[in-house]
Amino acid sequence: MKFLAMCSTGLGSSFMVRMNIETIVGELGLSAVTVEHSDISSAGPDSADVFFVAKDLEDAAQGLGDVVVLNSIIDMDELREAVKAAAARHGLL
Amino acid sequence: MNSVLQNLLDVFREPSVIVGLIALLGLLLQRKSLSDTVKGTTKAFVGFLVLAAGAGVVSDALTPFGEMFQHAFGVQGVVPNNEAIVGKVLTNYGSQAALIFFFGMVVNVLLARFTRFKFIYMSGHVALYLAAMIAVILIANGFSSWQAVLWGALAQGLITTLSPALVQPWMRKATKNDNVALGHTGNFGIATSGLVGKLFGNPEKSTEDLKIPKGLGFLRDTTVVIASSMGVIYLLVTLVAGSGYVEDKLSNGQWYLLWAVMQAGKFAAGVFIILAGVRVVLAEIIPAFKGISEKLVPNARPALDVPIVFTFAPNAVLIGFLSSFVGGLIGMGILVAVGGTIIIPGIVAHFMTGAASGVLGNATGGRRGAVLGAMVNGLMITFLPLLVLPFLGDVGLQNSTFSDADFGVAGLLLGSAVHISHVAVIGLIVCALAAVFAGSALITRRQAAKEPITTAEPERRPTA
Predict the structure, then answer these.
(1) Which element (helix H / strand E) includes B71?
(2) What's the CA gap between B356 and B213, in Å, rounded?
(3) Residue B290 · residue B281 · CB < 8 Å
(4) Is pTM beyond 0.85 here?
(5) For residue A38, what are the β-bridge partners?
(6) Which of B132, B230, B249, B347 is 20 to 30 A off residue B295, Cα-Cα?
(7) Does A16 sit within 8 Å of B304, measured CB to CB?
(8) What is the pLDDT of residue A93?
(9) Distance from CA of B81 to the nearest CA of A (A)
């Protein structure tokens, strides 16, 4: 099971979201999940099971599959709920 | 020179090895498992070599561009693009830059720990680019390697601590909280935009009340943006240079317009490779920095990359980019009229810093603030790079340069000092350090006068 955080260059904000997801995944004890980050142009439907993007990249992430759109990428609570929901969708919780 | 020492020196001349060692240190500090440690160290080492390989690709595309531009217009043409220039710099000054980057993080944590400027600069990629520029300015102007690392790391730590502080008043307005900061080398321009918005705008008339058609989603794909924008630039210059010159001198007889498109594609490919290398290197180093800084400075604000503000005002993102780009075009027009080196607008820089300028300009001054603020940023990132070129030694003769406002401001300060004397550089850095501690003490005293009872720290700080 792979979660992928994305932003336009895959350097700053996606990395931050990735580290936050890793923290949450650790809290929830989801050992089956690996988390990575990348630029949006490198990602394809097979790159991961769940994709995380900020709201401004919603259009660019269309067609990847299970895409989670974050209204604010600095809101830990929103991210926690999103990760929980994604894990539940994929039968991990 | 005995051979053991010689071999050791050889090792330290390899930036990829230095980067691997920095990653190793970080992984050990995080007490990672043996397999993770070996994996991470190897990836950082190889990642740097990937970056260096990308630099070669960019260089191959840029060199003929420079010749062609010179032939067509008789002056030097420079496209500011951080990745392009950093690739070049790191192949020559990589070891020193990596060490400045590393010790700069240490200085950043110490300053955040012991002063009121509690900002931890989490944007490793731009911090690495900044370290590269500092290394060039100091070493190209006669500093020895170890001196450059010492003073460079102090300068790096100061800049990464103070630059977020500069933007924080406007960040509070834009994000409606005080928990996160902005960590980007565009901060000086972005802060200026916030100020312009405050002076000349009206926050009541927000950009977000406008109906703006969507459809510029392609702007969010860096590879597409670089390839297409460079494609336009290459084609224009190729047309002016003429088929005869290009096919005779540069393209080995290949049809000149196809050659132009291919070079633009190669430029984008090189940047793509450099980004991949930087991504891999930082993935092994930044988590350790994050963990350690959270332990040592528990109440710090993480300074994060610009896209964190994009979701607060999506319309301002687009308006800011376009306004900044227009500023860049106006700036280029002025340079054409005046003569001399021409700075061609770097579209990635105008997007990233222009968008953030738009968001903060909108927060302080609404639509007018977003437009005017971002336009000022666009002008700044045209003229500042030009002013820094003379301090970059041979690197200043390349056809790309550092693109954001902080590079310009820091480069001007350091470069001007280094042109006076080495003592002036040391003086500048020592004075800046003293000023930070004095300013910090002043803030503490002022706050104590205001509120005799110390307030508790805010409950929730989002981790970054």
Answers:
(1) helix B34-73
(2) 20
(3) no
(4) yes
(5) A6
(6) B132
(7) yes
(8) 82
(9) 13
